[in-house]
Amino acid sequence: MNWSTVGRIRSGTCVAITAVALVSACGTITKSSDRVQFEGNFFRAKARPVDKKKAPTDFTVVVNGVSQSLNGAREAGRYEGTKYCIEQFGSSRIEWKVGPDTEPDQLQISDDKLSFAGTCQRP
Q1: What is the pLDDT of residues 84-99, one digit of tens each?
Q2: Helices of type H across the chain
Q3: CA 19, 25, 29, 31 torsion: positive or negative?
Q4: What is the spatial distance between Cα 46 and Cα 54, in angstroms, rounded to a whole number?
């Protein structure tokens, strides 16, 4: 192997590594641009099943940063619950035990987190 061949291999390897790095960075950029704002704020929210085996349709939603905006946090929770039910059961219908339309004095807020509980209604 001569030195010009080694140079081309190194150059090709650098191009390949750069291409992989750029493609992987695109995934990160796209994910953050999919975030949804509520009343001008971003909220971290997560929906989880209460007990996947016993009652798979029952779930909770926890929304972080409720101090930014109570109404925004409520809508972020509604969005996350609706998304969860659609992904898991194919329906956006929810029966809320404590949810976005609950009276403010009855909401479960602790440590800057708002918690909802609901049941996905099957189609």
Answers
A1: 999 999 999 999 999 9
A2: 3-33, 70-89
A3: positive
A4: 20
